[in-house]
Amino acid sequence: MELKRIVERTKNKFNLSVAEVGENDNHKVIEIGMCCAANDRGFADSVIENALNFIERITDGEIFEIVKEIL
User: Fold this and answer.
1) Which residues contact 6 (CB under 8 A, 6 or more apart)?
2) Which residues, at least 6 apart from 43, have a Cβ–Cβ distance to it below 8 Å?
3) What does each of the 71 residues of the chain score in pLDDT, given as a tens digit?
4) Which among 12, 39, 44, 61 is least buried, having the fewest CB atoms inside 10 angstroms?
């Protein structure tokens, strides 16, 4: 599936900020950043987890590294 479509579907379904953040020159790897603003840490974590599961379901790819930062 095309990167732009993955980003747009994830943004729309989960109301997240989503963008390609790295690996721009490598057509075999995509690096996506997501941001969820919420006043409840558990809620934000749940939304991100659901978005990751969604991306795994709609693509043939594999998520091989997840880095989370909560501010």
Assistant:
1) 30, 32, 55, 58, 59
2) none
3) 588 898 999 999 999 999 988 766 777 778 889 999 999 999 999 999 999 999 999 888 777 888 888 78
4) 39
Task: Give the C-alpha separation, 19 to 64, whole Å.
Answer: 18
Query: Which amino acid would we find at residue 36?
Result: C
Give the amino acid at 29: V
pLDDT of residue 1: 59
- Give the dihedral sign, CA 41/44/69/56: positive
Cα–Cα distance, 57 to 23 (Å, whole number): 22
Element at 34 (helix H, strand E): strand 31-35
